[in-house]
Amino acid sequence: MKREEFTRRRFLGAMLSAAGSSAAPFAMNLAAMSPAMAAASDYKALVCVFLHGGNDHFNTVLATDSTSWSAYNKLRQTSDLGSIHLASVGQSGGVLPISPATPQAGRSFGLHPQLGGMKDIFDTGRLAIVANVGTLLAPTTLAQYKAGSNLPPKLFSHNDQQSMWQSCQPEGASYGWGGRMGDHLASFNSQNTFTCVSAAGNAVFVSGKQIRQYQISNQGAVPVNLIDTYNFGTWQNPLRAIITASSGNMFAQEYANVMKRSLDSQSTLTSGMAASGSGGVPVPPMFVNPKSGKAEVNPLAVQLQTVARVIAGRSTLGSKRQVFFVSIGGFDTHDGQRANHAVLMAKLSHAFSWFDSVLGNLMGTDMRNAVTTFTASDFGRTLTSNGDGTDHGWGSHHFVMGGAVRGRNIYGSFPIIGLNHSQDVGQGALLPSISVEQYGATLGTWFGLNASQLTDVFPTLYRYSNQNLGFMA
Length: 473
Fold this sequence. Notes:
Elements: H1 8-19, H2 24-32, H3 35-41, E1 44-51, E2 61-63, H4 66-76, E3 96-98, E4 109-111, H5 116-124, E5 127-134, H6 142-146, H7 158-167, H8 177-185, E6 196-198, E7 214-217, E8 220-221, H9 236-243, H10 250-272, E9 287-288, E10 295-296, H11 299-312, H12 314-317, E11 321-328, H13 337-359, E12 371-377, E13 396-401, E14 409-411, E15 434-435, H14 436-447, H15 451-457
Parallel strand pairs: 1-11, 1-12, 5-14, 5-15, 6-7, 6-11
Antiparallel strand pairs: 2-4, 3-4, 5-13, 7-8, 9-10, 12-13
Helix pairs in contact: 5-13, 8-15, 11-13
């Protein structure tokens, strides 16, 4: 006999029906709960922050023990990339020291000097680092890599590795693992339109087999061209009627269906998501560009504000499980890496710090435990320099943030800093020790997927003995 899943709804129903009239005080207590508390307790969201171009993880999370520090500066000294870190650890302008809860023998660690906000969140226990994650088909040794055995297709290619990270398939994939999670959990939502949302344009990550990704702009719902762009007055309704009219032609009918769905969704989201600014979700403050010294708008923080506005409207939108995608470009740092990467780190830290703060009191409710934010990127970069920057690598380190994260720790064995070791595939580029599937499955388990659903989302997950990395509570 098939075992039925024992959900919160079934538990409450059983309690009420079994208790009969004696359940009245229990029911009254439930009714007395604040709607905000009830909504927050039954809501979960995943937010993918994609770093387009391939983030230099070696310049993001650093091993600062004397052996690693010496190797790092020796290998990067020719391009002056290391000089930003030459100040003593923890002093002004130097690497920001972090102390993982689980020590790694003989190692010490720090963050890029511009990641002050990330360090604060790490220290409070809401941020974890997952070391050396990358695209794999199965656990792989250096010998297998050199023999070209069982490797992901088109390694070191931007488009293909972006797709591999987002969908576990090369460029041309039609759905991603965020969208597939949405397929399985959309039944939690009273309407599935806003299950998978991108604030950064078209993204395969949030495309499912059944669930369509919903794309939004920084202003909210993307309007149908001309309908709301101009004030047609009395002409607006007839125009809507024309473009949504039924037709015997299957192409015309499909067009009408798409237009009606778009207009309906736009109306629902516009009325449902929270306002920006006064009375709604606060506008992110500007960040200080370390290259220019000027205050500037942070596009990543603006995207995360849009996500926060949708999350704040979860009850009106009927949403209890949502997957979001935001992104920031510029990480293909072949040139001018020292200054440009500092700007990118400043943007990342500013956006994460602001988002964490806002989630701590989102329209009167602490949503940190309900929202998990994580980074992804094409690949890491080489340890050695090309003279002014770094080239395409493979494995890289990533951040996971949220109240449900087992933070203040580094998960996975932090790789050796140097060349010609068992994880060096050339120029210090890392052979991943953790797969995207393991990373995603750990997030998916917290999100609510069971073992069979995880296998459906990640068909090659069975090849890894450790399918839960433990960074989620």
